[in-house]
Amino acid sequence: MLQVTPGPSFQNGRALRKIAAIDIGTNSTHLLVASVDTELRTFSIELAEKSTTRLGERDPETGNLSEAAIERGLEALRRFRELALSHQVEQIVTAATSAVREAPNGRDFLQKIEDQLDLEVDLVSGPEEARLIYLGVLSGMPFGDCPHLVLDIGGGSTELILADGRDARALTSTRVGAVRLQRDFVNDEPIPPQRRTFLQAFIQGSLEPAVNKVLRRITPNEKPVMVATSGTAMAIGALAASEEDRPPLKLHGYRVSKQRLDRVVDRLVVMTPEQRKGLAPINDRRAEIIVPGALILQTSMQMLGAKELVLSERALREGLIVDWMLRHGLLEDRFSFQSSIRQRTVIHQVQRFAVNQQRAERVASHALTLYDNTQDHLHRDDGSGRDLLWAAAMLHACGQHINLSAYHKHSWYLIRHGELLGYSEAEHLMVAAIARYHRRSLPKKRHESWQALQSRDNRRTVSDMALLLRLAVALDRRPEPVFQSLLVNVNNEDLVLELIGEKADQDFSLEQWSLESCAPMLREVAGLNLKLKVQE
Predict the structure, then answer these.
(1) Same domain, residue pair 67 and 212
(2) N- to C-terminal Cα distance for the chain?
(3) What is the pTM of this model?
(4) For residues 392 and 431, is the Cβ–Cβ distance under 8 A?
(5) Pick from 17, 363, 400, 431: most CB atoms within 10 A?
């Protein structure tokens, strides 16, 4: 662990600490530079780089890392070290996994890294690798009380983790990976049917102890969510997503059914490596090892009885950042991420786009008051839209620093292309669209923001929540608040908004004027008349 500079830097008055994490894997070496917010106690990713170092291509007789692999590894680490230092990180945390820990000369390689680059590398065990992967996934995906099965298919090992929002129930690591299987068992491609059957049986036998361990710790009434992370899983997800009419911008949170996975695997196994290299979503090196990796993923889903998996872009390298934060007292425990992933990511975006947070919080408060008091009148939401409304209210003004007159359109773009951890792709689109339609026109079929929504129910939720946000924004036209509280009531065909002023004889003519612009739309959409009442 290279310690470079002491102390935090500052941005918008907030203390930030720059940390780099390097993951030395069997197929690839990854660099991640993170900016840790010491107040929000979260982090954002500033840089992510990957180099295909192929450490898993070891000497077939001795099992040693080859000289060529060692040179590739050193060159990548030298470049990553310079990149990290150019970002003025205070520490570089480095971990090596399967290929290095199994090679007889693995420790010699680590000594070379320390001597030549002054990087101290932690040689992690299989269970420790699983723990770090778990921390990484935990930092970017809400688990709640539902158990999650996390599967990470590496080049030399596969980690299977059972966890929920409170604890990790099982951390397992099995010596079966995409590079290992390709090296040991794949001689001819396309893979002959008998070889595919053999590989599936080998994978099943290898994974059986780990699968049995996690299945024993799932209670009969629980329905675990399966999460897949790693280059193999993301490549499979990209291939599956390419079949969509509107492929997602990001794969994090994307769901792949077992049926679709089977179609992708069946397509891959009958292709030559050259044919696979022609597939846009995967690079040349991934094309060489994706078939055994895909068979691990397919067999794992079958053994676990999973009908669907969710992709996570976060894994071991993000886990190194979380682990660093834990060790430096920036998190009370590893679950403090879980209680507020969504809130933290939204607030981070609020600060990133220099949104007036106090005003955003006021608008969000008004919007939630309207939501809570207009069930069956302005919306028939089951509760899921409330959190989306809050996020959109917090971020609705983020486009103002681009253009004031059409800021709602810019807000849609910034939210759509920003990072909202803990939200699915569909929810992310809905948050952006709610912010888009809080002012000016109602949704139109030709709008990109409307076309992107995935279902009729999603469009209904966006329409309902956007109307609530429109009213909330109309109530907040001044830099400073002028009323203490908002009371909402629906009487027959009237929506009555009662304001309790900050002081006696408070003038609410500005609010009256602002709300009047919403009245025609309220009548059109909900059939209600808008009434403003001031409490004396």
Answers:
(1) no
(2) 65
(3) 0.79
(4) yes
(5) 431
